[in-house]
């Protein structure tokens, strides 16, 4: 469920935190090498603040996951307690995507205007209000209002969290730390799936408030993105934030100069409007950012995620057991993807992931084809389970997280807010389309549905090979310079 400003610049802050081994025994040679590595002088304190800031930010990602997962285990409880019809509950389940689209539209401008921390704080407040409205609702109206509020918070968080992480992280850790965004989303989904079977839906809504409270408290402790501060003209705060992130003994002069030089260049560019995204100089970044989000969503993830119980039931596999296995497999594989992000690189993970999605869809298509034609019926449930697990494992490995990481890397600061909103909107629109059409497609042809998704994932492999650059180990400025040419 997957921005445009110069998050890349934020990553340039990462230049200084390159952690290649410093070989040399004299202090002078160490300092010289650290300077050449753009501030490889990160002390333990600086790493602690980067990790703490990332942890606080991904509490928003966990909150995102709880919002996504809430409707699945609560359907019977809500409909029976409030007397909702199936159509009324469908509105409740889908209206979160509408709120998320609104959040996506405004996320770039909001985070540019009030800062990355301010945007996270605002989205947390929306989520708190939404959860409380859901918890104490007596009918469909307050229930939908609450879901709309949490959806808006999701839309903003889906943009600002990866942007913030990219702007504070050292470049050698940027991919792995940014992947924690997706890891915490799937952790939130899995947590909600499991806890939702143990507690009432009202209690589950109250539990959803907890990550918001942690995020709100943590935002009081961590620094604002130094790149946003520099862009906003807060020079003193910019230096203090960078110092806090890189450590009191780190040499931040070179990184400061690079950021300021880059911003001076951006000042000569006009303020970006939506049509400016389609200028030739930004076209490659836009195609990569939007294209990855299109393939991420239209490859079928939300159809399979939202209706996995129905898929298992249709294939004759116990839905409760299948759903628990599905929930449990996401977290460790997403964690593995995070570990590999800055080792294997973005493109290899995308290739492996898209290939796995293709294989999973073909397995599911085969199982439903066999069922429809009454061939080897005893193998259908096992084949369907294998297909679902292959699909969700492959998605968790790469296509879930990498598009958001690359999105945070490829857009220059002057268009990041506008581009980020647009890309996030595309992602949420795709999420809504796939989740809305899945049941209609399944009623048309169960195996045809998964063949359609397989075709999309095959196109994704070709798109990755042709268009997506490798961004591992490169500063944001380097990535931008290679992709955005006038």
TrEMBL record:
Coiled-coil parts of chain: none
Which subcellular locations apply to this protein? Membrane
Top-rank taxon: Eukaryota
Domain Major facilitator superfamily (MFS) profile span(s) in chain numbering: 53-472
Q: Which InterPro entries match?
A: MFS_dom (IPR020846), MFS_ERD6/Tret1-like (IPR044775), MFS_sugar_transport-like (IPR005828), MFS_trans_sf (IPR036259), MFS_Trehalose_Transporter (IPR050549), Sugar/inositol_transpt (IPR003663), Sugar_transporter_CS (IPR005829)
What GO molecular functions are on record for this protein?
sugar transmembrane transporter activity
Provide the species name: Papaver nudicaule (Iceland poppy)
Record-linked SUPFAM superfamilies: MFS general substrate transporter (SSF103473)
**Could you identify this protein by its name?**
Major facilitator superfamily (MFS) profile domain-containing protein
Record NCBIfam families: SP (TIGR00879)
GO cellular component term, pick one:
membrane
């Amino acid at each position: 469920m997957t921005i445009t400003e110069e998050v890349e610049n934020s990553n340039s802050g990462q230049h200084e935190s390159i952690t290649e081994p410093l070989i040399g025994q004299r202090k002078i040679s160490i300092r010289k090498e650290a300077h050449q590595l753009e501030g490889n002088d990160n002390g333990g304190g600086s790493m602690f603040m980067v990790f703490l800031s990332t942890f606080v930010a991904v509490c928003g990602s966990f909150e995102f996951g709880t919002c996504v997962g809430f409707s699945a285990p609560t359907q019977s409880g809500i409909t029976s307690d409030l007397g909702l019809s199936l159509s009324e509950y469908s509105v409740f389940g889908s209206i979160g995507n509408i709120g998320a689209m609104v959040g996506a539209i405004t996320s770039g401008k909001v985070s540019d205007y009030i800062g990355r921390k301010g945007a996270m704080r605002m989205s947390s407040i929306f989520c708190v209000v939404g959860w409380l409205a859901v918890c104490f609702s007596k009918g469909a109206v307050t229930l939908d209002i609450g879901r709309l509020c949490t959806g808006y918070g999701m839309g903003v968080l889906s943009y600002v969290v990866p942007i913030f992480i990219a702007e504070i992280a050292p470049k050698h850790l940027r991919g792995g730390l940014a992947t924690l965004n997706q890891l915490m989303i799937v952790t939130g989904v899995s947590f909600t799936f499991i806890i939702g079977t143990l507690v009432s839906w009202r209690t589950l809504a109250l539990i959803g408030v907890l990550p918001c409270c942690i995020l709100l408290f943590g935002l009081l402790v961590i620094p604002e993105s130094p790149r946003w501060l520099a862009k906003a003209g807060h020079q003193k705060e910019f230096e203090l934030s960078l110092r806090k992130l890189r450590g009191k003994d780190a040499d931040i002069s070179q990184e400061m100069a690079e950021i300021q030089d880059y911003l001076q260049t951006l000042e000569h560019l006009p303020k970006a409007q939506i049509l400016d995204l389609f200028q030739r100089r930004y076209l490659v970044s836009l195609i990569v950012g939007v294209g990855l989000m299109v393939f991420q969503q239209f490859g079928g993830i939300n159809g399979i995620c939202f209706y996995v119980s129905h898929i298992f039931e249709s294939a004759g596999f116990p839905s409760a057991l299948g759903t628990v296995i599905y929930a449990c497999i996401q977290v460790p594989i997403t964690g593995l993807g995070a570990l590999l992000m800055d080792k294997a690189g973005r493109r290899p993970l995308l290739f492996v992931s898209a290939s796995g999605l293709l294989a999973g869809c073909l397995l599911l298509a085969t199982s439903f084809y066999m069922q429809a034609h009454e061939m080897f019926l005893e193998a259908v449930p096992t084949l369907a389970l294998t297909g679902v697990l292959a699909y969700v494992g492959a998605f968790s490995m790469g296509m879930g997280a990498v598009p958001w990481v690359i999105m945070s890397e490829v857009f220059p600061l002057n268009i990041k807010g506008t581009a980020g909103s647009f890309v996030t909107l595309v992602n949420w629109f795709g999420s809504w389309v796939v989740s809305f059409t899945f049941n209609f497609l399944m009623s048309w042809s169960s195996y045809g549905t998964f063949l359609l998704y397989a075709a999309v994932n095959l196109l994704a492999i070709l798109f990755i090979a042709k268009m997506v650059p490798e961004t591992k180990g490169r500063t944001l400025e380097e990535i931008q310079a290679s992709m955005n040419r006038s």
